UniProtKB/TrEMBL annotation:
Pfam families: TraG-D_C (PF12696). It is a multi-pass membrane protein. Residues 331-426 form the TraD/TraG TraM recognition site domain. One of its GO terms (cellular component) is plasma membrane. It is found in: Cell membrane. This is Type VI secretion protein. Gene3D superfamilies: P-loop containing nucleotide triphosphate hydrolases. The keyword Cell membrane applies. Keywords: Cell membrane, Membrane, Transmembrane, Transmembrane helix. It comes from Kribbella albertanoniae. InterPro entries: P-loop_NTPase, T4SS-coupling_protein, TraG-D_C.
């Protein structure tokens, strides 16, 4: 009986046979959960100012089930899991980029998504490419990590993104939380000092090479009337720590800023006055920015990719706070393909949890749950998975733990199977 089922499922009617098995969603259940009418209803609260009856203004078409359309809402936090060549880009990512009604930030380790969507997104708003490695052969934007860091809050957010590139967040270092926190404090002091002194990215790089060079930043913080209270003393305390502790912290600082050793990359982060990338204007104009980096090459630039993402999302939150209902209109779309190969964005778990309510639509694409655990750590990866309101699992996974977890979520059902056999006398028995 089981063999017949498998042979039957291998015919052209496979989809219909599989769908007919007990335990899978019926046509009416598909429509009620992710159908066209449902996404339009959700859109009335997600985009109350849009006043549209088109599902394309409030969602993205995922595909079809039981002959019915399946839609993701712009307020969904979404995780797609699929190994390489499972169709993530062609069938999901490109559609998410094209369909987004507002500004889009998308990451990738290859320029394929850029090539497929560039002209279509250009018809909606300005297009920019952040490509320190030159993968896309398109002139990229220039963004200053120091921009706005005269504001202590901005310096804290920026340092959080840069510190993620030091690698402590993975949890594979003893007392990782302590070293990460100390690295972040040192970076925020350097950023704050660079902004107050109107220094360029080259000065920030020199300060980050060794603690002795950072004494100049301490002096700027202590002399400036606009410096955050106590920040000069904090940085001075780190610089004057005992040798081993100080050197370990500064190893994290150097790692976070290591991309600046390449003069070409350093130029990407040192725009002329008044010409740097402005996240708030980008969001208002419904722009699209492609963040590119290879899995290997991004190890150097990952801190800056994370910092730029933090800069954009923080700007989005600030804009949303001044809008009716506290929502960004139209929503900002984060389509984060191969994000685990690029950088560990510190705010990503919280964006998954509450971004939809402020008009930030987050779409994370990873190769496996094991990859997420490796990048963000066990607890943060679990928090992201739990916070996702939509989980799309593509075929081809070979991770036993992941498959067992998915099977547990799907639940179990009892199926009656009848077996027929014949005894030596020719009689037939059924069990």
């Amino acid at each position: 009986m089981r063999m017949w089922q498998n042979r039957k499922a291998g015919t052209p009617n496979r989809a219909r046979v599989v769908a007919a098995r007990p335990g899978l969603a019926t046509r009416s259940e598909v429509e009620a959960a992710v159908g066209r009418a449902q996404v339009i209803r959700r859109g009335r609260s997600a985009r109350p100012q849009a006043r549209t009856t088109s599902p394309h203004e409030v969602g993205t078409l995922l595909g079809y089930a039981r002959g019915r359309e399946c839609w993701a809402s712009v307020e969904d936090s979404r995780i797609d899991v699929g190994p390489p060549r499972s169709g993530k880009g062609l069938h999901q990512i490109i559609g998410s980029i094209i369909d987004a009604p507002g500004a889009v930030v998308t990451t990738s380790t290859r320029p394929d998504n850029l090539a497929a969507t560039l002209e279509l997104r250009r018809a909606i708003g300005p297009v920019a490419v952040f490509d320190p490695q030159g993968l896309g052969r398109v002139e990229g934007i220039r963004w200053s990590p120091v921009r706005g860091c005269e504001n202590p809050t901005t310096a804290i957010v920026r340092a959080s993104g840069l510190a993620a590139g030091a690698g402590f967040a993975k949890g594979n270092v003893s007392d990782a939380a302590f070293w990460h926190g100390q690295t972040e404090m040192a970076l925020r002091g350097l950023l704050h000092a660079a902004a107050l002194d109107d220094s360029g990215i080259g000065q920030l790089y020199r300060w980050g090479l060794e603690p002795a060079s950072a004494i100049e930043a301490v002096g700027i913080l202590n002399r400036s009337n606009d410096a955050a209270e106590g920040w000069g003393d904090t940085l001075d305390g780190i610089v004057r720590m005992d040798g081993r502790t100080r050197d370990a912290i500064w190893a994290g600082v150097r790692s976070a800023l290591s991309a600046l050793a390449d003069p070409a990359v350093r130029r990407s982060f040192d725009p002329p006055a008044g010409e740097g990338f402005d996240p708030a204007s980008f969001i208002r104009e419904r722009g699209t920015i492609y963040l590119l980096g290879t899995g290997v090459g991004a190890s150097a630039t990952s801190a800056f990719i994370a910092a730029l993402l933090e800069d954009i999302t923080e700007s989005a939150r600030q804009l949303a706070a001044h809008n009716p209902g506290g929502r960004l209109e139209p929503p900002l779309g984060l389509v984060l393909d191969e994000i685990a190969n690029l950088c560990a964005v510190p705010s990503l778990p919280s964006l998954m949890a509450d971004g939809g309510g402020t008009g930030i639509s987050t779409h994370v694409v990873i190769q496996s749950l094991a990859q997420a655990r490796e990048r963000w750590g066990e607890q943060a990866a679990a928090a992201m998975w739990d916070a996702a309101t939509l989980r799309l699992i593509l075929g081809g996974s070979a991770q036993p733990r992941d498959l067992q977890d998915l099977a547990a979520v799907c639940g179990e059902r009892d199926e009656e199977i009848r077996n027929w056999s014949r005894d030596p006398n020719g009689g037939r028995t059924t069990s």
